[in-house]
């Protein structure tokens, strides 16, 4: 009995690592491909793609961190081993439920494409919205299989399918957009070609999962037995989890959707010429991959501690739990502050390196502050979910979306994309603050204020060092080119990373015990000695 429990616990930990790694790879790919894509299609082409992307982003998030989590949670709660027919009932009801949602989104986007495009202020987007609508037909199938495998603690099919989906999608986007523009197609047609990646990636993911399904003979055995769970109970939990888990996972996408729906139309309705508004929105959208990459870096360490939190919750070990939550928050603050301040210091160089010119560097500087708040929001949401408090993060996201909508309407007419950037930062801050309030309601709070002051000091040292490095670099080179700016940006990242890690270690932000728990902590501890 003990050996079986230990084996199951080992599978959970291995699975958590596999999914974390796959999630990191897919998020990096999802952010990184936008750079070559923008270089191929330019700012207006980037605007076209980013206007429609949030719809696909909803599908991909639901199929990755929404619906599969719900299925696996239902399987875990109602017993996969003890009563195998419960599994069959859960799978059947989930299939009908997810199928209905997928079909609903498909119909709404396909039939309503023209209405949505008109609401956005750009009727030429309708064909692109119709292309994206087909990805929702794949949603139930991919979600069900991922959820099933996660429910039986086999994370490899989910991980492989995620990486495969994103890789095929990125290849399709880059190849078709380049090919279509080379053949003389316009930017909207090239955008439609790029969005075909949402279908090729989904088909590839479905194919991978189907192979695992066929190979896993145990599945046929699992779908036999006598059900003890009621259909109403499953449906009730599906409705609750759909709101809480799915809404929490859609934080970044929802805010992008708000900008897609009203930023361009507000610019045009307030007197800006259409082409200029499209370019301005395209420049503004440069901030999305930077926020994504910064958030991935900030949350990857802290989220790896969440399984520890779930384990301690089951043991009712409040002191140990409090220590690990504080460590998760501290790790998030360290990496989030470093990513935010580092980008602020070299935002102009980064902009030129990635997007060919410095247009919108002031907007990117404002948006870079979002990295810290987003990292906090995501990390605390994961902690709250580890504490089985799933409704609070969802309410925070909902409040943040309302703030984003209201501030966009108030600020964009007067301040254009600067207003949109400020509204994004404010909305992310609202989500982070609300999650902090909700965490305090659970009798957990961040207590290491001395550590917080050391993080602020280390971030200040980082900013000063990068500013000094840029001054010296510019004095030595004495000329401007994109190649030199790229070298300057990349070398600044290396210098900044070394300075910041050294500052964090020398100011003893983390105790020796904390470094033992943080990933790569033992290696960092040895560096601190030196």
UniProtKB/TrEMBL annotation:
Membrane topology: Multi-pass membrane protein
Protein location: Cell membrane
An annotated GO cellular component: plasma membrane
Domain of life the protein comes from: Bacteria
UniProt-listed InterPro entries: PG_synth_SpoVB, Poly_Biosynth_Transport, Polysacc_synth
Record keywords, A-Z: Cell membrane, Membrane, Transmembrane, Transmembrane helix
Main location: membrane
Transmembrane segments: 54-75, 95-116, 128-149, 170-188, 194-214, 238-258, 289-306, 327-347, 363-384, 391-415, 421-439, 451-472, 484-505
Presence of the UniProt keyword Cell membrane in the record: yes
Name the UniProt record assigns to this protein: Oligosaccharide flippase family protein
Organism whose genome encodes this protein: Metabacillus lacus
């Amino acid at each position: 009995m003990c050996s079986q429990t230990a084996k199951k616990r080992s599978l959970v930990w291995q699975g958590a690592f596999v999914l974390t790694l796959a999630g990191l790879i897919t998020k990096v790919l999802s952010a990184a491909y936008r750079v070559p894509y923008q270089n191929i299609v330019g700012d207006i082409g980037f605007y076209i793609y980013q206007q429609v992307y949030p719809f696909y982003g909803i599908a991909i998030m639901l199929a990755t961190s929404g619906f599969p989590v719900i299925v696996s949670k239902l399987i875990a709660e109602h017993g996969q081993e003890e009563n195998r027919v419960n599994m069959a009932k859960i799978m059947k009801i989930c299939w009908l439920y997810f199928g209905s949602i997928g079909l609903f989104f498909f119909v709404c986007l396909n039939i309503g494409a023209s209405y949505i495009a008109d609401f956005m202020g750009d009727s030429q987007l309708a064909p692109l919205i119709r292309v994206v609508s087909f990805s929702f037909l794949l949603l139930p199938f991919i979600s069900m299989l991922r959820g099933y495998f996660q429910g039986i603690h086999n994370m490899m099919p989910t991980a492989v399918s995620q990486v495969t989906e994103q890789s095929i999608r990125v290849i399709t986007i880059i190849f078709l957009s380049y090919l279509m523009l080379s053949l003389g197609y316009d930017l909207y047609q090239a955008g439609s070609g790029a969005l075909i990646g949402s279908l090729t990636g989904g088909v590839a993911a479905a194919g991978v999962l189907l192979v695992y399904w066929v190979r896993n003979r145990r599945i046929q055995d699992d779908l036999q037995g006598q059900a003890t769970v009621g259909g109403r109970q499953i449906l009730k939990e599906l409705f609750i989890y759909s709101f809480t888990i799915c809404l929490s996972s859609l934080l970044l996408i929802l805010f992008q959707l708000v900008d897609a729906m009203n930023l361009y139309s507000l610019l045009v309705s307030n007197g800006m010429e259409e082409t200029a508004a499209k370019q301005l929105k395209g420049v503004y959208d440069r901030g999305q991959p930077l926020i994504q990459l910064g958030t991935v870096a900030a949350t990857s360490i802290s989220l790896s501690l969440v399984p520890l939190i779930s384990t301690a919750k089951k043991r009712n070990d409040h002191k140990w739990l409090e220590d690990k939550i504080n460590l998760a928050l501290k790790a998030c603050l360290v990496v989030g502050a470093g990513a935010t301040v580092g980008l602020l210091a070299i935002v102009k160089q980064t902009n030129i390196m990635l997007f060919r010119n410095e247009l919108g560097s002031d907007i990117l500087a404002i948006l870079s502050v979002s990295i810290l708040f987003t990292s906090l929001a995501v990390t605390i949401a994961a902690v709250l979910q580890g504490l089985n408090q799933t409704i609070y993060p969802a309410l925070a996201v909902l409040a943040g979306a309302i703030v984003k909508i209201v501030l966009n309407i108030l600020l964009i007419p007067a301040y254009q994309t600067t207003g949109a950037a400020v509204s994004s930062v404010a909305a992310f801050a609202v989500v982070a603050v609300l999650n902090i309030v909700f965490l305090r309601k659970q009798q957990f709070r961040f207590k290491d204020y001395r550590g917080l002051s050391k993080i602020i000091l280390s971030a200040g040292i980082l900013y000063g060092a990068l500013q000094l490095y840029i001054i010296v670099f510019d004095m030595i080179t004495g000329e401007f080119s994109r190649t030199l700016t790229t070298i300057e940006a990349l070398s600044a990242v290396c210098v900044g990373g070394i300075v910041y890690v050294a500052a964090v270690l020398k100011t003893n932000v983390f105790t020796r015990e904390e470094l033992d728990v943080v990933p790569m902590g033992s290696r960092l501890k040895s560096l601190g000695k030196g």
